[in-house]
Design goal:
The protein is α+β, with helices and mostly antiparallel strands. The protein is built from four helices and nine strands. It has one domain. The chain starts with a helix and ends with a strand. It comes from Exophiala mesophila (Black yeast-like fungus).
């Protein structure tokens, strides 16, 4: 039984790495995302949620939003070194930044958005935008959690607020930028912004992710 589980994990890792390589190759062909990849600050992170999940788990992003007309390409880029987090006088961890530079970001997500996510014609549906931001921020929160003293348990979305600044015209290649605003106990306060190839802010999001010892 242990050998079968080990073989399964190896197969999942192989599929996840192949998915990363395919998506890196795609985003290398887009001039502005090629520049992002060339900074050397970030590394591509393989995840299994797009390639192989347990039955009934994360089917929304594994199946529903993993098609040629929804999110055909998706790449998670995380800092090679975690963003600096200071302990302030209130014993809360905080980066203290509200509009970070590239070097202060924890994660970025490059994503190609297809026309099946239209609300109005050529415009990305607001619900799809929220789903994209929640998924990106949740992965970011999980990475912060693993780097903290709270290594056990799972982080869940507690609150998510989205400000829609401009219509998100699709099909398009977009980027989600994520950074930590504050960490207090079992709570992570994380921000994100959705930008286009001209680095125009299309949407902004902020939310709280909370650590739970139970699994849903």
């Amino acid at each position: 039984m242990q050998e079968n589980q080990g073989s399964l994990r190896a197969e999942e890792k192989t599929r996840a790495m192949a998915d990363v390589e395919a998506n890196v190759a795609f985003f290398q062909m887009v001039p502005w995302t090629r520049q992002v990849l060339a900074t050397g600050i970030f590394e591509a992170i393989p995840t299994s949620y797009r390639t192989s999940r347990q039955a009934g788990e994360d089917t929304f992003f594994h199946e529903t939003l993993n098609t040629s007309s929804t999110f055909p390409h998706w790449l998670w880029l995380a800092r090679k070194q975690a963003a600096t987090v200071e302990l302030d006088r209130s014993h809360r961890y905080s980066t203290g930044c509200t509009s970070p530079s590239l070097s202060q970001l924890n994660s970025m997500f490059l994503v190609e958005v297809g026309e099946a996510l239209w609300g109005f014609k050529h415009t990305m549906h607001g619900g799809a935008i929220c789903a994209l931001l929640d998924q990106a921020l949740s992965l970011c929160a999980g990475r912060y959690q693993k780097a903290s003293e709270h290594t056990n348990g799972t982080v869940y979305t507690a609150t998510l607020s989205v400000n829609f600044r401009q219509p998100v015209i699709v099909p398009a290649v977009l980027m989600v930028e994520c950074w930590l605003e504050q960490h207090t106990g079992r709570k992570w306060h994380i921000h994100a912004r959705l930008v286009d190839g001209q680095h125009r802010t299309l949407c902004e999001a902020q939310g709280v992710w909370i650590l739970s010892s139970s699994v849903l």
